[in-house]
Amino acid sequence: MLATTAAATLVFTACGPVNAGDPAALEYQAWVDDVEGVESADVNGMSPWPFQGEVYATVRLEELLGAPEVVEILEELRTFTFDESTNATLEVDVVYVAGDAELTMAGSWDSDPETWAALVTDPALRETATVVVTTLVDDDASLVAVTRGDAVEGAAMLDAAVERHLGVTVADHRVRDAASTSDLEGERTGPAREVYERIAAEFSITGGQVREGEVWIGLPALAPVVRAEVVSRITALSVPGVVVEVHDPR
User: Which of helix, strand or coil describes residue 250?
Assistant: First the structure.
């Protein structure tokens, strides 16, 4: 999953087993499986230090829940506490499903369930068809929308929804077109972004980075003669003041 920051981190200190992660994960799994409205949960435990566990969970909600139901589930999820004998931290991502769209909440969803519920149930986001990871200004929250279709249009719709509900401007994001599985990182507007969009529309690329005056393009494996022709055509789409770099797969 494309979520970047942890959510609902709960820290407890107590005596317990040396390998604290596995029993802590089982403890959370047993609890979350009984939460109404949760379809499934993928829970994993680690023990980076003796007697200290780390639990990471991805909780998938039942499909097409309304905002009030999502709020209720988020409120319930943030009430969990480990047993007194469990010494572990917990990080939870929550996945909202609406048809083809999957929106993963990570970061600060537990601090404001009502706002996050309004965001993920926004009907406009169901019309997007992209994979988008957003990083929000002055906030540790992130939102990942996974659907099918146009990446640029979907990113714009997601930006608008984030600003509308969370009241913050999207500073930067990573976009993947689900059809081509290409990635884009960097600026959302400007000449370099326009060059990238022209290239992505015409060629099958594996990824890209956009910065002021610079576009990085990743290509799939190609025969040398074909690659030379593709690189020539890609660089020809640039404009004055924008440098295009083309890279082979690693």
Answer: coil
